Amino acid sequence: MNKITCEVCMDLMPLVRDGIASDDSKMAVEQHIKSCTVCEALYSEGIPPAVSSEKAFYRFRRQVQLFSVFLLMFGSFFGLGLTAGADMFYNSLIMPMIGMLGYVVFRWKALYNVPVLLFIIHALLNIFRTLQGTEHLDIYSLLMWTSLYSVFALLGIFIAAMFYYALKKNEKKGNTQRKLQKAGAFLAAALLVIGLCMFANALVGNPVSGLLAEKTAGEHLSEHYANTDFVIEKVSYSFKDGGYHAYIISPSSADSYFTLYFDMVGNLRYDSYESMVANGQNTARRLNQAYRELTDSVLESSAFPFQSEIAFGDLELTEGLELDRMYDIPKLGAEAGRLTVYVDEETVSVERASEILLEIRRLMEEGGAPFYSINFVLQYPRSEENGNRPEGRVEVQEFLCADIYQDKMTERVKKANEEACAYHKELDQKK
Fold first, then answer.
1. Phi/psi at 72 (5° precision)
2. What is the dihedral of CA 32, 34, 38, 40, to 10 degrees?
3. pTM of the predicted model, to two decimals?
4. By the 8 A CB rule, do 262 and 212 touch?
5. Torsion angle of alpha carbons 261, 263, 269, 272, nearest 10°?
6. CA-to-CA distance for 188 and 195, rounded, in angstroms?
7. How many Å is the maximal CA-CA distance in the chain?
8. What does the pLDDT look like over 197-246, one tens digit per residue?
9. Residues 6 or more apart in contact with residue 87 via CB below 8 angstroms
10. 234 DSSP β-pair partners
């Protein structure tokens, strides 16, 4: 083995002492200190201060890189896991941060390493969910979302690169042009960060505005609802209107809940108590949900003999409702319940529609889900070749349950169908 100099030996000593040197380096150091009393004394007494500082810096940089790799992997899994969920817009911040971490780990190789990493992790997550049965593998969506996230990540890479260039120590001092370039790079990176923050704020809001909205909501409740038990359930941001919504509930009342709307600086824009609580909207919604569940028990039952893509019931209630009152749902259904049923059959005729309506009335009454009127359509099934329906159908609108009986049923359905056709024709002429 070739002999090494004292300088090389002192460079290798920290690696040998830490146990991370190769066997050849270890053997070279051992052979050198056998013939060099100075290096032997340094090795036995400890690492020289200068070498120790360099080694400490080397170890610190390696730890930073390893921690960055961990954050890069964790952030990628976490961000990609949010895709198609309610929190997916947070990726407008997460993906640029992943790009910045990618630059710390790979430098400019991050331009292709990070997009490839995102694609691999996204594909693995999709395959895992497909095996679980929670979703189907969609290559188009996979490529679309990965491309979009890669754009955000690449933006983060350029931001990190510009900050690195701007803050890197300049070996040639007094270079005015270099200083201007560094200042320009820092300014450009700062503007990109500000732009990203503004874009993300438009999508997911910010905690400061959320706290302002919560504070104002508390003050509003104290001032206007002091004698109630209303409390703030949560405050959330809505990108649809760019405002914050404080959801107010009453632990003692199922129908007493409403929303306060705030702008970005915490100013109250709207209080929905009057429309949702005082005017009975919440009560109507509760009763409608109860009636929907009652009609679904018949329309979605395996005993329901007709093929239907659309079948549900609604209550048309607007006035005279009492807060938190327990109503007789079947009785309300008979007074204000409306069914909407679309039936697919190979035979489409007024006679067949009359038979089905008679059967629907019988099934709903036997199931304890009476109704006041029905919107009914009898149509052909979709074609297996192109998914379209053949032309021709029978339709009745707001057909009263009281008019569904055997005697002259076909005549009433025929007349109602003609009225529905005339109505649609009139709408087409207005377009």
1. -60, -45
2. 100
3. 0.69
4. yes
5. -10
6. 10
7. 121
8. 999 999 899 999 999 999 999 999 999 999 899 999 999 999 888 899 99
9. 204
10. 247
